[in-house]
Amino acid sequence: MMADLFMLAALCVLISVAGALIRAWRGPGRADRMMSAQLIGSGGVGIAVLIAAARSEPAILDVALVLALLAAFAALAFVKTVTPKGAGDPEADEAETP
Amino acid sequence: MSLAFDLALCALILGAAGLAVAGRNLFGSVVFYIVYGVLIALAWVSLGAADVALAEAAIGAGVTGVLLIGAWQGMKDAGGLEAEITKSLPVRVLAGLGAAALGALIGFAVLSLPGHDGLTGPVAENQPALDLGNPVTAVLLSFRAYDTLLETLVLTAALAAVWSLTPARFWGGIPGPKHTTRPDGVMASFGRLLPPLGVLVAVYLVWAGADQPGGAFQAGTVLAAVWILIVLAGLRDEPRLSSLILRLIVIAGPLVFLGAGLAGALAGLALGYPEGHARTLILIIEYALTLSIAATLALLIAGPARRAP
Amino acid sequence: MNAMEWFIAGLLALGVFFYVAGTVGLLRFPDTHSRLHALTKADNLGLGFIAIAAGLHWGDGWIAGKLALVWLLTLFAAGMAAQLVARAALKAEGGE
């Protein structure tokens, strides 16, 4: 009963993050596309937690842990692409950027 | 309810894969591929294969994104984004036919697999001899250890291939551009705060790998991600590729693995473990492999040297 | 269902609600910087409710700690990403 409830919630989160694919397709900016990947990443963390609880399988929680740990890596690589050669920091002022 | 979830997940995976291939916007395709990695990790979760799910979560959702975005940046710097990349119709038809043939072959291979249980039974029978709780580790490091040994050598060979692209004047130099960040900025703080947690998770994964899902490959990938983060955050530069210590770390895992196999040969069983010592030897190999896989993956993503030593 | 199970079901419903809110925001908000709000706030709140529901269902201290770590890592990553993506979007608008 509770397991079904957790799987139902996982299905709902999955359908919800599927909507983010529309934003990834339309853009318009690269930031918008990257944001939908972020949303699907955090949806993935939620879904992994829900499946772990539905099956009482602690190992799946480790998958959620790794997904959460590495969730921001692609976003970090992305924000560097707006700087020269992708080697700077968008927070640095133009004068500081060599 | 699980069936409904699996069907929706399959539809989404096919959708994300299709959009990654069909899109005209190259950065959009990169994003769809990252999304595809997350979804595939969830598919392995749903199939109950936590070991594979861990590897896919670290590789597909984490490291591949950095690699592909780096490749996109390289194309942009080289002016490749504006170039006309549309191929002629025959080329596209041939590519489509090739992909379809490969897909049919894989489908055929999957359908011709022996029944449901596969090798679960024999593995469960022989696993107690190794004193390992995780059947996947038992298969990877004992029953099919030569596969894993060759895979680690493939990784090392791939790194040699990437290094061979280095221009002569940069040989043994430093890969990638020098990353600079605002010292007190968000990026630098993130690069200081996350690595300790990442190292903790990696140590946990390789420690857990003996008896639960986890292992050298998963832990090595997380460590590689930590390495890449520290470089991207501008806290440490990439190492010189001529560094002896670095090269020793890269080959330490395969060397220990080969050494254990050769020691087995001297004891009468090539690539085998002496009775009663399997668990100890497997753990030593796992820990050495973790470091080598971490260094190899991080250096593969950093690419050939682009600055003089 | 007993009271605890109803409570967990309520938490799950809240979690799903915030995930849906995040998606709706990402699709409906007019510009990149508004959409960033939907992304970094709503779905992390959703994950928080889901993590609490999973922790209560499991009823194990170690698991609860791991769930808390998962949630904190996600919050942390989202905070970092929000700051930097906002800057990146500003630069992209000005520079390209």
From TrEMBL, chain B:
GO terms for cellular component: plasma membrane. It is found in: Cell membrane. Belongs to the CPA3 antiporters (TC 2.A.63) subunit B family. This is Na /H antiporter MnhB subunit-like protein. It comes from the Bacteria. Its main location: membrane. Residues 188-288 form the Na+/H+ antiporter MnhB subunit-related protein domain. Keywords: Cell membrane, Membrane, Transmembrane, Transmembrane helix. It comes from Glycocaulis alkaliphilus. It is a multi-pass membrane protein. The lineage of its organism: Bacteria, Pseudomonadati, Pseudomonadota, Alphaproteobacteria, Maricaulales. Residues 11-73 form the MrpA C-terminal/MbhD domain. InterPro entries: CPA3_antiporter_subunitB (IPR050622), MnhB (IPR007182), MrpA_C/MbhD (IPR025383). The keyword Transmembrane applies.
From TrEMBL, chain C:
GO terms for molecular function: sodium:proton antiporter activity. It comes from Glycocaulis alkaliphilus. This is Na /H antiporter subunit. InterPro entries: PhaG_MnhG_YufB. Pfam families: PhaG_MnhG_YufB.
